[in-house]
Amino acid sequence: MAIRIRAAAVQAEPAWLHLPAGVAQTIALIEDAGAGGAQLVAFPEVFLPGYPWWLWLNSVDWGSEFQARYLANAMTADGPEMTAIADAARWAGVRVVLGFAERAGEEVYMATAMVSPEGQVKVSRKQWPTPLEREVFADGMVPSEVHHTELGRVGVLGGADHLCPDRRVDLWREQVHVAAFSGFTVYHEVSDEITVAVNSSVAEQYAREGGVVVIAPTALVPMTGWAVVDARSPEHVLLSGGGGVARILGPDGRDLVRPLPPGRSGLLFADLVLDESVNPWTDMRAAG
């Protein structure tokens, strides 16, 4: 029996360190996805309140300035912000996969909310943040899982986890995989084109190895032309932002629909047809 899905991947700049604005932005994107006929919309990793890119900079110079603000703008799993997002999913009739920084006491986790079209919320936490991410985020200690939904079996991983085969072992029965990227930024002299190409190839390889559809939302970081320079050597750019590229890929790793231009905010839509067999995909078509 075939399952027909219209999916949407978010490509947008988060409302950095501003939770109320980020929630309003998230709700607007859910409404736009629903208006576009999507039954599933996927957001980037920690879209609320944005990925803590300052970790790539000198912690003495930058960490103390942002750490408290990040904690204050992280979202609880059962607070009014999540309730508003769940209500938006219910009103739009859309299943939402939302990456957010979850505040639980004094800890912050890299979390994903799986919100049903009925507004029910299930939250999971990234099991092992990278060593650098542990400067902000605690270990989730719960393995990734496949969510059995009305749209089929949906799995989710954050960007770096795709490079760790042991973190994918429980996802082998996926029909749809959400590869939630926090965005692509450039450190020192690495070009933006190379960074985007390397990270995008991770999603392509996952699709081919797993034989699954991959929906890869991404954040814009934070906007084209943004840069941080070394105060001691202003001519030396430490970190620069650019355009993320959201993609929706077939099991052969090829784009099912033409990506949005780099740096442009919006939703990428594709129509999918999934088979209910163990090797789930038999036919697929893309639509802009």
TrEMBL record:
What are the positions of the active site? E45
Write down a Pfam family by its short name: CN_hydrolase
Q: Among its keywords, does the record have Chaperone?
A: no
Q: Among its keywords, does the record have DNA damage? A: no
What residues does the CN hydrolase domain cover?
5-274
Q: What GO MF terms are annotated?
A: hydrolase activity
Specify the domain of life of the species encoding this protein.
Answer: Bacteria
Q: Which UniProt keywords apply?
A: Hydrolase
Which family does the entry's similarity section mention?
Belongs to the carbon-nitrogen hydrolase superfamily. Nitrilase family.
Q: What name does the UniProt record give this protein?
A: Nitrilase-related carbon-nitrogen hydrolase
Species, as recorded = Nocardia lasii
